[in-house]
Amino acid sequence: MALVKELKRREAANATIEINISALRRFAQMLGVDQAVMEVLHNIERDFFCKKQADIPKKFAKLDQIGSVGKVLGRATDLLAASRSERSLELRMAKLNAAAALALFSLIPLRVKDTNLLWGVHLSHTGQRYRLDVRTSKCGTEFHGEICDFVTPFLDALLLRGCDETFLDMKRREALQSRQA
After folding, report:
1. What is the model's pTM?
2. Are 26 and 49 in contact (CB under 8 A)?
């Protein structure tokens, strides 16, 4: 069938092919197409339904490429260390941002839409730990809680931006009052 050939040429997933054949079959049924043609369409649809069951979703294939959470957190630690010796402020901040994002979002499952966090609104400091308060955009689920200590050096580094640690309390207060990202 030409449609299947074209979709395969485009490297469409089996689920995509099944959906397209299903739509074509329903359209053919509404037109009153011959029963033999309807049977062929039904068989093709069923074949791709079975094939899609064995497919690994793309998101899981990508996760396999990324590696374990330990590997991701190790990469975050490496980026944090590399940022400290970076001379260029732009590159230092890029590495710091990447390190903090890897550390925080590999431990806290938020959608990309929910990751624009503001100090003093979503992120605060209790005096002991950082705290996250977020309402997710998809379901409105609220996430409230303290962030594990592992992430603290990353958030501290974002606040300090290369300044000495003696300024940390002042930088935290400024950030919480500014309510900026």
Report:
1. 0.63
2. no
